[in-house]
Amino acid sequence: MIHLYLDDYRRCPTGFALARNGEECLMMLRESDVDILSLDYELGFDSDMCGRDVVMAIIREGLYPREVYLHTSSMSGKQEMYQLLYEHKPADMILHNGPMSDEMLHRIAKAADVS
């Protein structure tokens, strides 16, 4: 089981696999069991996908992780992704309308150092 971080620019937190674009993110969701997924919305000028496109593919293909965070700085993008996921998510998926706390990031990094 992996933690997955989708972002075209930011540094990937310790303990996460990094997807720099939507295609990479979807490939990892298809090929791995994803525990925590953290999504960005704007994925660069040369990308064909944004966070909304990734969310739509997650819904369409049933690629739901156990837990989702939205770390994007785009307020409208965050709201759009949250609403779509909220309306379609399975009952056991945990959805957060914002980024992971520093405490959570520290806990994941510490667990990665142990393994």
* Helix percent band: 40-55%
H/E series, N to C? EEHEHEHEH
Number of domains in the coordinates? Answer: 1
Count of helical segments? 4
Based on the structure given, which CATH architecture is correct?
A: 3-Layer(aba) Sandwich
CATH topology: Rossmann fold
The global form is globular
Low-confidence stretches: none
- Going by CATH, the homologous superfamily would be Response regulator
The major sheet is characterized as:
5 strands, parallel
Assess the beta-strand content as a share of residues: 15-25%
| Order of neighbouring strands in the sheet with most strands | 2-1-3-4-5
The chain-level structural class is alpha/beta
Please tally the β strands and state the result. Answer: 5
Quaternary class: single chain
How far apart, in Å, are the first and last alpha carbons? 13 Å
User: Which class in CATH terms?
Assistant: Alpha Beta
Overall pLDDT score: 96
Radius of gyration based on Cα positions: 13 Å
Domain Cyclic-phosphate processing Receiver: 2-86
InterPro entries: cREC_REC
Keywords: Cell cycle, Cell division
Pfam families: cREC_REC
